[in-house]
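Propose amino acids for all 95 sites.
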């Protein structure tokens, strides 16, 4: 009985230590995205990882299946990344 109590106490203490470590080390990150314009060819989205400041402008090319990600640097939009959704979501080849 004493050995079982020791194991229960040890497991309880380790669970509490992990809980405190997670509570202290956790850094909350908020993300936000807003749809700005929807058209037959393009969809424009803005996204940010902080409150109030726009970090990226995402352009979705609906016909070609492209996502163009622009980053705001000062007063200029700079193309950061192009993602082809057709490559990402294409079905696997049949054998």
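Proposal:
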């Amino acid at each position: 009985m004493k050995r079982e109590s020791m194991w229960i106490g040890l497991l309880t203490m380790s669970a509490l230590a992990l809980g405190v470590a997670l509570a202290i080390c956790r850094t909350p990150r908020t993300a936000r995205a807003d749809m700005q314009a929807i058209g037959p060819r393009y969809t424009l989205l803005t996204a940010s990882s902080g409150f109030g400041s726009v970090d990226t402008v995402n352009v979705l090319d609906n016909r070609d299946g492209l996502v163009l990600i622009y980053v705001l640097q000062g007063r200029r939009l700079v193309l950061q990344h192009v993602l082809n959704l057709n490559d990402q979501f294409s079905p696997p080849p049949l054998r």
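Helices lie at 2-25, 85-88. The mean pLDDT is 79.
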